[in-house]
Amino acid sequence: MNWQSLAYLSFGTALVVLFLWIIVHFYRPKRKGHVEEPKYKMLDDDQDQL
């Protein structure tokens, strides 16, 4: 195996690992709750703050 094929294989593997990490990071339940929280906070009544 020459260095070009080894570089191609390692670059492809790095891209797959990065893609999987992005998917896991953005679809965790904890992150989803953190992202959705401001939307529901805007809809809350602010009567107690007046």
Write a structural description.
The protein is mainly alpha-helical and 50 residues long. The chain has helices spanning 3-26, 29-43. It contains 2 helices and no strands. The protein is rod-shaped and about 70 Å long. The mean pLDDT is 85.
- What percentage of the residues does DSSP assign to strands (E)? under 5%
C-alpha-based Rg, rounded: 21 Å
Distance between the termini: 72 Å
Arithmetic mean pLDDT:
85
- Share of helix among residues? over 70%
Which structural category fits the helices and strands? mainly alpha
User: What general outline do the C-alpha atoms trace?
Assistant: rod-shaped
What is the string of helix and strand elements? HH
Q: If helices are DSSP runs of H or I spanning 4 or more residues, what is the number of helices? A: 2
Number of domains: 1
Task: Provide the low-confidence segments as ranges.
Answer: none
Largest sheet: none
Q: Tell me the total number of β-strands.
A: 0
List keywords for this structure.
mainly alpha, 2 helices, rod-shaped
Write the layout of secondary structure elements.
Elements: H1 3-26, H2 29-43
What's the short version?
This protein has helices at 3-26, 29-43.
